[in-house]
């Protein structure tokens, strides 16, 4: 009959034909996904990883360190050292790891403050003494104690944090092994301690950079098992 279209159906009884067609369809879906992701500015590897994640695969961490040594880090200042497999500092100091990334999630499986005014975790850190970037700070010395996010320009922190949340009354700042997570996506940064979001900030000044740690004044702190993964 004229004017009547013919719809071709997959014949699941013909295994060879159906598997070939499925493979072609999956390849087309992956190609479209990769092309779309690359148009948003992601590299080829990132695009492949995201496309693979749709099928339950994973590409692993961008960076991981258990602090068996300090080979992956640059010490700008301070007495950083490895103690019993942990990165530790007494007094003021800064240490960083450079790489060019925009969005990522930083996980620190152990962060312990023994004394002093606090420690910080750098992100989107451009590196060097005159760096630009941001830091999340676990800061019992700020007011009555707060979780804050700061911006840094030419190696100097701005006097006013870009975000600040006071800790609950009676919060135990010292002697506890905390987990810290920092999610960096676009212009939005979310810091969590022990699985609970504690402070969020938005800023578009700096769009890529590495990570690092800091301490100040007479603080004493240790860290272990840091990882950076794709968000």
Q: Summary?
A:
Strand 12 and strand 13 form a beta hairpin.
Q: What is the element layout, followed by pairings?
A:
Elements: H1 15-39, H2 44-53, E1 63-65, E2 74-77, E3 81-83, E4 86-90, E5 93-97, E6 104-115, E7 119-125, E8 133-139, E9 146-153, E10 156-157, E11 163-166, E12 178-185, E13 188-193, E14 196-202, E15 210-215, E16 220-229
Antiparallel strand pairs: 1-16, 2-5, 3-4, 4-16, 5-15, 6-12, 6-16, 7-8, 7-15, 8-9, 9-10, 9-11, 12-13, 13-14
Model description:
The protein is an alpha+beta fold. The chain contains two helices and 16 strands. It has two domains: 15-53; 63-229, Jelly Rolls, CATH 2.60.120.560. The strands form two sheets. Strands 1, 3, 4, 6, 12, 13, 14 and 16 form an eight-stranded antiparallel sheet that branches. A hairpin with a 2-residue loop joins strand 13 and strand 14 (196-202). It is globular and about 45 Å long.
């Amino acid at each position: 009959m004229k004017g009547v279209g013919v719809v071709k159906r997959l014949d699941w009884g013909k295994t060879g034909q159906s598997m070939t067609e499925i493979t072609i369809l999956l390849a087309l879906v992956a190609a479209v996904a990769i092309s779309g992701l690359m148009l948003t500015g992601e590299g080829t590897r990132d695009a492949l990883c995201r496309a693979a994640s749709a099928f339950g695969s994973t590409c692993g961490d961008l960076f991981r360190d258990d602090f068996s040594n300090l080979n992956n880090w640059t010490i700008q200042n301070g007495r950083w050292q490895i103690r019993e497999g942990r990165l530790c500092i007494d007094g003021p100091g800064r240490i960083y790891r450079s790489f060019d990334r925009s969005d990522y999630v930083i996980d620190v499986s152990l962060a312990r403050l023994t004394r002093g005014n606090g420690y910080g975790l750098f992100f989107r850190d451009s590196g060097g003494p005159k760096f630009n970037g941001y830091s999340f700070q676990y800061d019992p010395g700020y007011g009555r104690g707060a979780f804050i996010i700061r911006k840094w320009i030419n190696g100097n922190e701005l006097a006013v944090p870009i975000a600040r949340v006071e800790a609950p009354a009676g919060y135990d700042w010292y002697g506890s092994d905390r987990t810290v997570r920092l999610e960096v996506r676009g212009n939005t940064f979310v810091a969590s301690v022990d699985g609970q979001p504690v402070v969020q900030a938005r800023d578009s000044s700096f769009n890529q950079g590495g990570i690092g740690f800091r301490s100040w004044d007479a603080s004493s702190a240790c860290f272990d098992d840091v990882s950076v993964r794709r968000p």
